[in-house]
Specification:
Blueprint lengths: L6 E5 L4 H16 L4 E2 L8 E5 L8 H17 L3 E5 L17 E2 L6 H12 L10 H8 L6 H13 L3 E7 L5 H12 L2 E4 L9 H16 L13 H14 L7 E6 L28 E8 L11 E5 L4 H18 L1 H9 L4 H12 L3 H12 L13 H13 L9 H12 L4 E2 H11 L5 H10 L4 E4 L6 E4 L2 H8 L1 H7 L3 H14 L6
Parallel strand pairs: 1-2, 1-3, 3-4, 4-5, 6-9, 6-10, 7-8, 8-9
Antiparallel strand pairs: 11-13, 12-13
């Protein structure tokens, strides 16, 4: 087995771009199990200087590089590496000849991590069973550095704890987790309902196999007794953490907690989903993702929630960057835009607006646009892949059951037809015209159940709700969906009109 490198990394604080890159690389390498030192010592195998051509290195940085160079001459180590974020051809000392290797500068941070790891001899490691999913979700990945910075800051400052990434369907949560795993090589588990990967047994088995392969602990031999799962997870995390040097974190990433099956749901004192520990050992961190749904998870340690919906402006910057890249490099899209004389800027403006910050929408619509299925940018029909996604969830929520779940169907369609966010009070008033026995508690239950497909807006008068993306509204408007729900849009709008006639909209 190749020895793990020990890296001393320096950069000048006077060069913000170099300092930011060095800080990001430090966090990622540490999560990957690579010790990063502040000063070179006899154990240091590599010295990485992140330097900018715009700013001369500070005196202490030059001194550290000089000390590393002297050590390299006398004992053959550490190996000297130089990386310039602005791509400059730099000599780290501009003095005596010192053997050093330049690390190629890359545009994307993920690619830069790969390049640095190759220079250090750190193998790329991803969970074997998830390699295909990770490759698929990270192909062409772009941006989201603000999310990774938040994760690194949490892991770098908290003693232990959970970082919870939350968002709407299609916000890119799985892609973010997959890219984080690809960069860091951390232990990971992906819940995938469509593949039946939703159980605690699968998680505990996967966790044990990965911790055993990475840290040499004993994986559980018998997973038959579910009552011991909590104990097994705790024991494995303790042993794996003990196998790591004290300064390195143990990070476990778990995607789509909302898709995992809850153990004994609804019972008082029910266990955490996947038997995740309420308390973690020092130096152990879980990075988990879920939709905005009620996930059974009791946490008694540091707990940070990061809602992607609160970072829409940053998301739109990434959306536009992705569209510019696709519109100028994808052969199919380049051909369609040229053929229909659509300027690249207009393509970006229109698709960014239609996306509403939702990457899943673009993931489905761009291939169909590339294949020439739309005339211009007037995209009226729902992309086929997105339609299938909504249809599967519609059935999963029991909306096609007989008899029809009347209250749920009406609440969802009232939200669909109203043009702005609506309060629970107004929804209750509308539903009172349909069924006088329906009260605000029943309405709130439906809103909670459908939370992942709704936007919740805080106002001084209380929360208001709306459909999360116009493509879901398009799905609800389809004739087949309306028929399966057992109602008519005309009937829904008639009831809404009657209520709004008496109730000035926006004051409910």
């Amino acid at each position: 087995m190749t020895a793990t490198p020990r890296v001393c990394m320096v950069s000048s604080s006077d060069a913000p771009q170099a300092a930011l890159l060095a800080r990001r690389l430090t966090g990622t390498l540490r999560a990957r199990g690579v010790p990063v030192l502040a000063r070179p010592d006899d154990t240091c195998t590599h010295f990485l200087a992140v330097l900018s051509a715009d700013t001369a290195p500070e005196e202490h940085v030059v001194d550290l590089i000089g000390a590393a160079a002297q050590s390299q001459r006398t004992r053959g180590s550490p190996s000297l590496l130089v990386l310039s974020p602005d791509g400059a051809d730099l000599d780290p000392l501009a003095g005596p000849t010192v053997p050093f290797r330049r690390v190629r500068r890359c545009d994307g941070f993920g690619e830069q991590v790969d390049e640095v790891c190759r220079a250090l001899g750190v193998p790329a490691t991803v969970p074997g069973g998830a390699a295909g999913l990770i490759d698929d979700k990270t192909a062409g990945f772009l941006g989201r550095e603000y999310v990774f910075d938040a994760i690194d800051a949490f892991v770098g400052t908290a003693r232990r704890g959970y970082f919870r990434l939350e968002g709407d369907p299609g916000d890119g949560k799985t892609a973010i987790i997959a890219e984080y795993v690809r960069r860091t090589g951390c232990v990971a588990h992906f819940n995938v309902r469509s593949q039946g990967i939703v159980g605690a047994r699968q998680f505990v088995g996967s966790l044990g196999a990965q911790l055993s392969a990475t840290y040499g602990i004993a994986a559980p031999a018998d997973l038959g007794d579910t009552s011991r799962y909590g104990e097994l997870v705790g024991r494995m995390l303790d042993e794996a953490r003990a196998a790591l040097p004290g300064e390195l974190p143990l990070v476990v990433a778990v995607d789509a907690l909302d898709e995992a099956e809850a153990e004994r749901p609804g019972e008082p004192g029910a266990v955490n989903v996947l038997y995740l520990p309420p308390v973690l050992p020092d130096g152990v961190y879980f990075v988990v993702s879920s939709r905005r749904a009620e996930v059974p998870l009791r946490i008694e340690t540091a707990d940070v929630r990061y809602d992607l919906g609160e970072h829409l402006s940053a998301t739109m910057v990434d959306i536009r960057a992705l569209l510019y890249r696709m519109g100028s490099t994808s052969p199919g899209l380049v051909a369609r835009l040229a053929e229909q004389r659509i300027p690249l800027d207009r393509f970006v403006d229109v698709l960014a607006e239609k996306s509403e910050g939702n990457f899943m929408y673009l993931r489905h619509v761009l291939p169909e646009l590339s294949d020439g299925l739309y005339r211009g940018l007037d995209i009226q029909q729902l992309p086929h892949g997105l339609e299938n996604y909504y249809e599967a969830h519609w059935r999963l929520m029991g909306m096609t059951a007989r008899p029809s779940p009347r209250t749920k169907v009406w609440v969802v369609y009232v939200l669909c037809e109203l043009a702005a966010p609506v309060s629970t009070a107004l929804l209750t008033k509308v539903m009172g015209e349909v069924n006088a026995e329906v009260d605000a508690i029943a309405i709130q239950d439906v809103l909670t159940e459908w939370r992942q497909f709704l936007r919740r807006e805080r106002t001084p008068d209380g929360p208001r709700y709306s459909i999360y993306h116009s493509s879901f509204r398009d799905f609800l408007h389809q004739r087949e969906t309306v028929a399966s729900a057992g109602l008519s849009l005309a009937g829904v709008n008639e009831v809404i009109a009657d209520v709004l006639w008496e109730h000035e909209y926006g004051q409910g």
